[in-house]
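Feature request disguised as a bug report, sorry. It would help if multi-protein outputs had a clear separator. Right now it looks like this:
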Amino acid sequence: MLIHAKRVSACLVAVAISLIGTSCGTQTPEAGKKEDVKTAALAKSAACNFPTTMASSNEQTAWQIFVAANCANNGKLTWETWK
C-alpha cells in the first residue's frame, strides 16, 4: 500500500510540475535547450517551496502544501523525512 501511495504521489507531482511549466507560457520552437532547463528548474524550485502566506483560497493553499511535501529531497520525498 505504501509503495502504491508513493507512486501516486510521484505521478501527481509530475503532473503538477508539468502543468505549472505549460501554464506559464509557451516558448518559440527556436528557443534553446539551455533556456528550457532553466525554466524547468525555476518552476520546480518554486513549486517545491512551502507557501509562507495564504493563497486566495484554502484549496489552493492545501494544494501548494501537498505539492511541496511531495518534492524530492535528497533522494526521498520531503514528507518521508519528517520526524
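(second protein starts here, but nothing in the output says so)
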Amino acid sequence: MRVCIVGTGAIGGLIATRLAAARSADVSAIARGATLAALRARGWRLQHGDTTLQAPARVADRSEELGEQDLVVIAVKAPALPQVASQLGPLLGPHTLVLPAMNGVPWWFGHRVAALGDAPLESVDPGGAIARAISFSQVIGCVVHVSAIVREPGLVQHVKANRLIIGEPAGGRSERIARIAEVLTAARFDVEQSADIRRDIWYKLWGNMTMNPLSAITGATGDRILADPLVREFCSAVMREAAAIGARLGCPIDQTPEDRHRITTTLGAFKTSMLQDMEAGRPIELDALVGAVRELGTRLAIPTPNIDALFGIARLFGRVHKLYPE
C-alpha cells in the first residue's frame, strides 16, 4: 500500500515512523522547512521511553513529486486543512482513500445526515471547499487516542496510548477498512474497526471540547481544571448541551459528565494539545472543537448558552493572542 503522510508533526510523524519501520507500507510524506531538512538528513525518529526508533524517510515539499497514493493520512491542525486540501490533487486517484487523523468535528461529519440537510459545516469547511477537494466516498473516519509531542524538527516523542479507531463515515463494515487496519496493526497500533465512527468521534469530542480551550485560556493542566468545582461544573454544563446535540445526530452519550471527569482525572497533570499549541504560538483548533458544535446546535435549534460562552471567551482569547483570525 502506498501511504502518504500529510502533516509531519507529532501524530503524523509517529504514524509515519511506525509504518516505515515495520515496512508494512510504502511510506512517503509532505513536509516543509526545518522538518523537511531534518527528515532528509536523519530519517524518521521516534522516542518512546529509553528507545529511539529510526527509519529512512522519503519526503517532498510538493505533492506532485510523490504522485498517486493508495492512502493519504492527513495529520495537520484543523485551521490548516482548507489550504492543504487544495494541494492534495496529485496524490488522489479514483481509488485513493483519505484518512484524517485530526481532532474535533471533521468537515464531512454532516454529510448524509438528514437532520442537517446535508449542507457543509461552515465552521470547519467554509463554502464547502474541502468537500469539493476530497470526495466523501474516499474518506475514512478516524479517532486518534495517542499522545505524542515534537521534541525537535523530525523527532517525535510518544508519550502514552496507542489506539486508532477507523471506520466508514456512512457506517458499517468494509473490506477497505479491514485493509487499512491490517497495515496499521502491522505497525504496532491498537486498531479498532468501528461500525459507527461518527459516534466514536462525538464521544472523544464530548470529553475534550472543554478541556482544550479552558487549558489554553488558563494555562492549567487537566488535573487543575477538574479540581476547581466551579470550572468542573461549567465543563459539565457544556457537556450536557453537547450530549443533547449528539443524541439528535444519532451519536448518544451513555455516560454522565461526572463519569467522564473521573476518567480524565486518571490522566493526571496532562497538557492538552490546545495548550501546547498556545504555548508554541500556533493557531488553535477552536472551530473544530467548539465552533462546529455550536453550529450544529444552531442548525438543530438546540439552545447552547454554555457552549456559546466557552466559544466566545476562547475566541476572544485567541484573537488577543493572534492565535485565531479576526
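Even a blank line would do. Unrelated, but nice: The mean pLDDT is 95.
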